[in-house]
Design goal:
- By secondary structure, the chain is an alpha/beta fold.
- It has a domain of about 120 residues: 3-Layer(aba) Sandwich (Phosphatidylinositol Transfer Protein Sec14p).
- A five-stranded mixed β-sheet has the order 1-2-3-4-5.
- Strand 1 and strand 2 form a beta hairpin.
- Helix 1 crosses helix 2.
- The protein is globular and about 50 Å long.
Amino acid sequence: MSRTTSPTMTAIEELQQQYYKINNKNTFFKKKQKYECADLVTNQIGIDIILPKCIYMFDTNKVYIDYLIFKTFANPNNYHDISVCLANNINDCIKKNKTFEIHINLDTLTVSAVERYRQIITGFAEHGQMNGYEQYLSNMVLYNAPSFISTTTSIISSFISPKVTELVTIHKKNIELPIEQ
């Protein structure tokens, strides 16, 4: 089953449409409105249902993060839950394999989204550095990377250490994702 047509994604899309029908979608200054909509999605569907569809392990040592789902519910009210889920998946990989990989689908990521989610990105990068994750990281793969990611490597390096930057592989649009849940 494709992620974009899953029952959860259908429910998320319906909630988003409801929200924007009541609260006309802003053209500018959208950050607060996007957080409110994401909070509504989280409260209606439940973080325990959405998180495993956004962040999960596959092939015993690979952690997958799907930005297409992340952006529908991520907001400052649940950053802690998201970080704990990611840390738990990474820790499980390390316990089982002494190594882990990160695979991230960045489809539809924008520069404004990077700024909107800067707090959770930098927070988790700091958590990873404090817990020594980089010594266990063997690969980081970015799928459907927007052009600004590869042309502006400073965006990536501002979040991760130089050692981790060397492990990053960037794939532009239209490459097959490693897994469909």
